[in-house]
Amino acid sequence: MTLSELNPGQKGTIVSFTDPEMAVKLMEMGCLPGEEVEVERCAPLGDPIAIRVAGYQLCLRKTEAAVIIIQ
Amino acid sequence: MADLKVALVGNPNTGKSTLFNLLTGLNQKIGNFPGITVDKKTGYSKLPSGKTAEIIDLPGTYSLYPKSKDESIVFQVLADKNNASHPDMIVLVADSTNLRRNLLLFSQVADLGIPMLLVLNMADMAKKEGIDIDTDKLAERLGVQVVNISARKGEGLTELKQAIAQTTAIATQNNSISAKDFAPIAIDAIKQKIGTDNDYYALQVLHQHEHLAFFTEKEQEEIEAIEIGNGFDTVKLQGEETVARYKHLSKVLTDVVTDTGAEKKFTFTDKLDSILTHKVWGFLIFIFILFFIFNAIFSWSSMPMDMIEGSFAALTEWGHEYLPAGVLTDLLLDGVVAGLGGIVIFIPQIAILFALISILEDTGYMARVTFMMDKIMRKFGLSGKSVVPMIGGIACAVPSIMSARNIESWKDRIITIMVTPLVSCSARLPVYTLLISLVVPDEKVLGFFSLQGLTLMAMYLISIIAAVLVALVFKFIIKAKERSYFIMELPVYRMPRWKNVLYTMYEKSKTFVIEAGKVIIAISIILWVMSTYGPSSRFEAIDKKYNTIEATSTDTVQLASLERDRSAEKLENSYAGIIGKTIEPVIKPLGYDWKIGIALITSFAAREAFVGTMATIYSVEGSDDEAVGEMRLRDKIAAAKDPETGLPIFTFAAAFSLMLFYAFAMQCMSTVAIVYRETKSWKWPIIQLVYMTVMAYVAALIAYQFLSP
Questions:
Q1: Parallel, antiparallel, or unpaired: how do β-strands B89-95 and B257-259 relate?
Q2: What are φ and ψ of residue B258, in 5° steps?
Q3: What is the mean pLDDT of chain B?
Q4: Is the dihedral of CA B543, B549, B550, B555 positive or negative?
């Protein structure tokens, strides 16, 4: 499953990415395979989402979260 | 001249700018990187050794592989040894509370082989959050000096300056990953081609040579050929390199960082976020904050603005009284000083807007606004980050367009810049109020709402709707240059750094005065000349006519009124007047005569010139009492009649047509100048000028033709 399918409060572990270009950006910002990620909250209109990863908070659009495959 | 060039490099939100301000004080300037269209901040710092260091603040980035135009500067400057900004050493600023991610950039930069040191900022905060860093061990493993500072509190500065002075001219950092393994043959070929012995530099050249302007076209082709010949897959290799670097960093950080309570850092932020980004409260609080900003820009600035206006008026009056009368004095006072006054008057609003915006940014709230608004704004081709400039546009488009620099995506930023001037700014307010008071009856609707107030609000609504719709059009026209990302850090909430707020106020006001000022003064002088001079035959005839009449009159009141008539007639026959008459056929369908034509022309420099021009044309004597002065102007304008038909000129239809024209037209030289400065090309200001003028004309035409009986 992908990160975009998680609901706020749910956790997962990053396995891989479906988009190599986005993967570089995400890894540079701390989203590494093996890292635990938790969906913190959705924006009031449902998109983007805020996640907690590697000790800090990131926000990203759902389309971007969809490239992150999690366990 | 500096003895040493030091570049500050680091992730966004690491306090790099705060450190820059601390090191340089007000001794800083903004310039351009040679050949690159991004602002360069430099300043000077005195080192304990007595030497002076030139400090260069490079844009914040997570990696040497750029995702936006700003970020691409970092590698361009570090790669080009002949670049005037190429540093002798690098200070890498890292956030102690998130060391691993920050060290990714460190390890990339270190591999370029430039002398450097590592600054661990927010050391105090890390300690509070239970993060303990063994700096000695870290320094040993990295092979560079490591300095703990707290830029926010100003701690550790002396030690940092000492460390900068002690940094050796030869790089000492240890090897991290083996860059050569990623593309051994291609890297060897590049090393031979460009004459370097640094593997990682060669690898970066393979990745990013398109961004490096110092390679000739032939060299670019040769590098490209090496890339293709070796099947160099840039995206795949960037990914592999990033993974390898993190692996290496895990080893480096083992036993260096002990984290006993990382979760603590978020409890306060989480609580605030559950309110500030709440479905209902989030938007209500946001609207309240907007209202506060809007209100502050108007109410806090009114006193300083009155004072500035007053002092410039006094200066002009004083000048006319004491300086020798003549053309030069007139040019100086009515051209240059008047133009200068038109710029300086905006400083309070600019300073207040930027102070409030930098507080919102510093506390971390702005990132949440972006987060909340992104979905709505994206529908119109904008981004969550467009909200701030567009709201600021209600005060003044100039600082708002400057604040659009925070938008990383080029397309989103251009669209934001293109539509922000449509939002009704404070300079349109006097035009609206004058025209509304002329044609909208002072009545109450439902016994409560003032009809005039509602009309004014409608004008603001129309302008915001227009901005959003135009953005939608641009969304389909403009092609994206780079992929738009919204992956963004949500920093924890913090108290604003008041010093930074002050620096921002000072810096933005200064930039505005200098950059926009040049253009405004030039235009003011041209306008002054055009409305003061006309064909000499016509002017001589007018002078002769009034000299004869005045010679026979002794009544001082009548004399004064004759003088006014003389200047009115001169204005009519001045070059500006002649142009007004020339364009009359074009503006006739909108319901305007040549006098409004002159006002339209003088408003080209700044729309607030409208009321002043109307006052001059209708030869209203200035009065100390503003209300009386405006009443007279209003009466005169209301009484103005078309000489051919004998019907009033300012009908309901004409006034609305004029208001729509002012709502949509780009009548602001400062905005044109700032759009040029921000986009670094004349293309965008010209497109903007054309589309806004066409839109204004068409809207005014439809309104007049539809409303006139």
A1: unpaired
A2: -115, 120
A3: 83
A4: negative
Across the interface, whether the CB atoms of A54 and B262 are under 8 A apart is answered no
- Residues of A at the B interface, defined by Cβ within 8 angstroms: 20-30, 32-33, 40-41, 43-48, 50, 52, 54-61, 64
Q: Dihedrals φ, ψ of B70, to 5°?
A: -55, -45
At residue B586's C-alpha, the angle toward residues B583 and B590, to 5°, is 120
Percent of chain B with pLDDT over 70: 91
- Domain span at residue A29 reads 3-70
CA distance A54 to chain B (A): 8
**Tokens matching residue B215:** 């390679």
pTM of the full predicted structure? 0.77
- pLDDT at position B125 is 81
Cα–Cα distance, B445 to B427 (Å, whole number): 27
Query: Residue B609: is its pLDDT beyond 90?
Result: no
Best interface-test mutation with A: which of B371, B373, B376 has the largest number of A CBs within 10 A? B371
- Chain A residues within an 8 Å CB radius of B375: 43, 45-48
CATH of the domain at A31: 2.30.30.90
**Residue B621 pLDDT:** 39
Q: What is the pLDDT of residue B708?
A: 82
Is residue B482 over pLDDT 70?
Answer: no
Q: Quote the CA–CA distance of B497 and B501 in Å, as a whole number.
A: 7
What's the total number of domains in chain A? 1
Which residues make Cβ contacts (< 8 Å) with residue B586, sequence separation at least 6?
A: none
**Whole-angstrom distance, CA of residue B568 vs CA of residue B571:** 5
In B264-309, which ranges are E strands? Answer: none
Tell me: the pLDDT tens digits for B99-124?
889 999 999 999 999 999 999 998 88
User: What are the structural domains of chain B?
Assistant: 4-166 (3.40.50.300), 179-259 (no CATH), 518-707 (no CATH)
